[in-house]
Specification:
Elements: H1 3-23, H2 45-52, H3 56-63, H4 72-81, H5 86-95, H6 112-121, E1 126-129, E2 135-138, H7 140-145, H8 159-164, H9 169-172, H10 176-191, H11 198-210, H12 212-219, E3 229-235, E4 239-249, E5 257-263, H13 266-271
Antiparallel strand pairs: 1-2, 1-5, 3-4, 4-5
Helix pairs in contact: 2-3, 2-4, 4-5, 11-12
Length: about 280
């Protein structure tokens, strides 16, 4: 089967999947009148389009398997309208040939007190991650430091995925060949506490399938402990910047940690304001 045929088959499967999802939802479940001459089981296409806030023609073409572009925001709206759970949502993204978004475990809720700490650390970039490097919260300085990192929409919200699946990562992270192996080794050490945990096993399986680089690093079975790191970045606007990366454990939620990036030299301190979009 050629690549063109593969894309066509996925679009056809996407259409069948969407039809099945809307067929299971009655109009009364979403606040619509059932009507007396309803020949369609479940919701009509135009009703899905209306509820999702998308064009009827666009949604019709999506179900018909036409080669149209579907953004993450639009797919999210369709997924919410059709009441998809996280497995169905990932399936939707996969069929639409977008990187599936990754949802953190419901137990990993960042306390408001920790969010206040993140805000207070600004202008130092800071973020909260778990053992798999899922990004659970960030302050504005962190988000603006990395807002031009991606050449395609960031749907996974994970630092490690951002490195090994983004084509521009090596150009931005100058010591990539030091940092990424360390991140994988840290994740491997955390994995020892989660062997057999379905979210971890699925995450590792999917990332290995997407990134031969990750699969090779994971196969080394190297482990590492927390340590202060130097992270060298080439920012699109500010230029070359050096940060010391410090990690702080979140006592309220075991496994979570705050990563804080502190400028390592006077030049980086001076360049820091240039990373802000409002500068």
């Amino acid at each position: 089967m050629t690549q063109t045929q593969v894309h066509a088959s996925r679009r056809e499967e996407l259409g069948r999947f969407l039809k099945a999802c809307r067929a299971r939802i009655g109009p009364e479940e979403v606040g619509l009148a059932p009507g007396v001459r309803r020949r369609t089981s479940g919701l009509r296409r135009e009703e899905v389009a209306l509820l999702a806030g998308v064009g009827v023609t666009w949604y019709t073409w999506l179900e018909q398997g036409r080669p149209i572009n579907a953004s993450a925001q639009v797919l999210d709206a369709v997924a919410r309208t059709l009441r998809m759970d996280h497995i169905e949502r990932e399936h939707l993204y996969r069929l639409a040939e977008l990187t599936p978004s990754r949802l953190p475990s419901p137990s990993e809720v960042v306390p408001e007190t920790v969010r206040e700490v993140l805000r207070a650390l600004d202008p130092l970039p800071a973020t909260v991650v778990n053992g798999r490097y899922d990004v659970l919260a960030s302050n504005a300085a962190q988000e603006e430091l990395f807002w031009e990192w991606h050449s395609m929409p960031c749907l996974h919200k994970n630092l490690l995925w951002c490195c090994v699946t983004e084509p521009n990562a090596r150009r931005f992270l100058l010591n990539y060949d030091e940092e990424v192996p360390h991140m994988v080794a840290r994740m491997r050490a955390e994995y020892g506490r989660h062997v057999g945990d379905p979210p971890w096993e699925e995450d590792i399986r999917r990332l290995s399938a997407l990134s031969p680089e990750f699969a090779g690093l994971w196969a080394r079975h190297e482990v590492a402990e927390p340590q202060a790191r130097l992270r060298r970045l080439e920012h699109p606007q500010a230029g070359r910047m050096h940060f010391r990366l410090t990690e702080l454990a979140v006592s309220e939620v075991p496994g979570l940690r705050v990563q804080v990036s502190t400028p390592d030299d006077a030049s980086t301190w001076a360049l820091l304001p240039k990373t802000r979009r409002s500068s």
